Amino acid sequence: MHQSHRRRKDAPLERIIYKIVPQELWHEARAEGLFRGASIDLQDGYIHFSTATQAVETARRYFAGLSGLLLVAVETAALGDALRYEPSRGGDLFPHLYANLPMGAVLWEKPLPLKADGSHEFPEMA
């Protein structure tokens, strides 16, 4: 018998996912009490996140040479069904949040300083 696939149960369920955010935008979100997304998120209709293994490549591709960034760690259990893993870069499944990010789901935020070569120095990730 075939089981119906109403939701993707085979998607990787990470406990923590990550968002790279300009400091200024993040401070505005903190003041408001929720993060609505960066311009690309607003354009695409969901907030882009990365797993720990995807975050470094995301920074290299989309944020190379940019300073004033934060790495934000988010607890996935607090996001419910609005969080979906969908194919993106190279068919890899990326976490996408189809809602605003509540600050209660944020575990920490840390600076992403630039190294001399234009790449970012990542803090330890879980």
Q: How much is the average pLDDT?
A: 89
Give the overall silhouette: globular
CATH architecture: Alpha-Beta Barrel
Radius of gyration: 15 Å
CATH superfamily: Protein of unknown function DUF952
Order of neighbouring strands in the sheet with most strands: 1-4-8
- Per DSSP, the total helix count is 3
Q: What's the level 1 CATH class?
A: Alpha Beta
Q: Quick one: how many beta strands?
A: 8
Order of helices and strands: EHEHEHEEEEE
The CATH topology assignment is: ADP-ribosylation fold
Classification by helices and strands = alpha+beta
% residues in beta strands: 25-35%
Low-confidence stretches: 1-11
Q: Cα distance, first to last residue?
A: 39 Å
Number of spatially distinct domains: 1
What percent of the residues sit in helical stretches (DSSP H or I)?
10-25%
The main β sheet shows up as: 3 strands, antiparallel
Q: What does it look like?
A:
The chain is an alpha+beta fold. The chain has a single domain, classed as Protein of unknown function DUF952 (ADP-ribosylation fold, Alpha-Beta Barrel), CATH 3.20.170.20. The chain is 21% helix and 29% strand. The protein is built from 3 helices and 8 strands, in the order E-H-E-H-E-H-E-E-E-E-E. The strands form 3 sheets. It has a 3-stranded antiparallel sheet. Strand 5 and strand 6 form a beta hairpin. The protein is globular, with a radius of gyration of 15 Å. The protein starts with 15 loop residues before the first strand and ends in a 15-residue tail after the last strand.
